[in-house]
Structure formats: structure tokens, C-alpha cells
Amino acid sequence: MSLSYLYQFENQRSPFWAFAIHDGHHIDADLESHLCISPSDRLREEDPYTAILAELPFNRFVCGTSRFQLDLNRNKDGAVYLTPEQSWGIQVWGEELPPQFKNQLYESYDMLYQKIVQQLEHTIERYGYFVVYDIHSYNARRDGPDAPIDEVNNPQINIGTAHNHLKWQGLTALFLDSLRNGKDGQVYDVRENVKFKGGFLSAYLNEKFGDKGCIFSIEFRKDFMNEWTGEVFPQKLQEYKQLLMQSIETLESYFAYER
Predict the structure, then answer these.
(1) CATH number for the domain running over 7-258
(2) Which of 107, 157, 238, 254 has its C-alpha lying 20 to 30 A from 172's C-alpha?
(3) pTM score above 0.85
């Protein structure tokens, strides 16, 4: 029986994309009996609600399957967490995963990367370029639900750009500024390449497309939720989504000027 993988592409007439590749929590039924990680531990390391943040007025790619089944932000050899070293010290599988399942998962990985590339190639054919908002979230209270946050090393929003072509440095500066300044004079701690520099997907797409594509790997500190229980704080989630919405004007103005 083939393993299922839940994902969705939504196409708009836009050169811009929003990805939420770690939003999902689903595990294929045939794999559940092999798991030894609890649903709550899975949820803590997943990026719930990032699909909501990615509900922007342009193209979307959202994964409904958990990263603990297949992680698209790792290289192929690391996309299935076979050892605790690959997954924050967590033992994911109770026994060695049967070879037929591993092979199917790696086949899914190849298929999905092929689909992502095809989608972005179509965007380049139409517009000559693309921009990806690669939206993630991260834990900053690993010592417990009431632990203080080290704000020096954990910005509210981290933008990973380490793999990007130098061509996009000007756009990056404008993008960072657009996120720092919210409504009513509120200022957000937005920094570049402090906590995360961009994962494998960003590296792969940059190598594949060069100066045709700009990938912003956007990591929100989990201020919009309780990272230990999964409880969402809707007002904060909407604040962060509004920041992404207002940043779109920055992209549109930049490319209107460049063209």
C-alpha cells in the first residue's frame, strides 16, 4: 500500500509564493504503529499555524504531513529522521523503519522537489523571477513553559538569507525594514541570519535558480502560541500575519521600479 503525503499548491497570478512546509501534523496510518514519539512532542517541533500566516494574496505551497514523516527542509538523506541526532535528540521510530516505507518516503521527497521546481519554473517563465516567503516558527522556551526567553539570541522574527544571491541584498534591507515597523508605531525585533540562516530547501532553490529567485526563510518565534501545549494566541498570530501582508507592498514597489 502506498503511503499518503498531504500537500497543496494554490496558484494565483503572482510572482510571489508563500511556503508552509512544516505546518502539518498528519502521519500516514501505516506508519503510526512504527512511531514512538508522542503527538504532543511532535507538535512541539512542528510549525503549527504557519499555513495561516501563509494565507497571503499570492501562490501557496502548504504541507499537511508532519515533518516527522518527511522533512522537506533537509537533504534527501536526512529527510526521514532515522536517528535521534537528526531530531533534537528524540527517538522518532520505535524500531527500524521497514525498507519499503523508507523507499516510498524518499520517492515522495523526489516527487515533491520536482513539483516545487516545476512550479517555480512556470513562475519564471511568466514573470522572469520569483520570491518565496518560506515561513517557519521556532521554540525559545526549551527549558520549560515558564522559562525566560533569551531575547539577545532569539529575535521575534529571524530572516534567513545566507544562501541568497547577492543581487537581493537591496530587497532584503527593504523587506527587513517593512517587518520591523508595525501599525500604531509598534517596533518588532527582526534580524537577519541570527538564529537560522535558511535551510536545505532555500539552499537547493538558490543553487537551482540563482538570481532568478529570492527566498526569505522567515522564522517567527513562537510568541503567537504556547509552544508546550499548542494553544494559539489569535491576536498575536494576526499581528504577525499583518506584518507579512504589509510587506507585500515593499515587494511590489521594488519590482515595479526594477522593471
Answers:
(1) 3.40.630.40
(2) 238
(3) yes
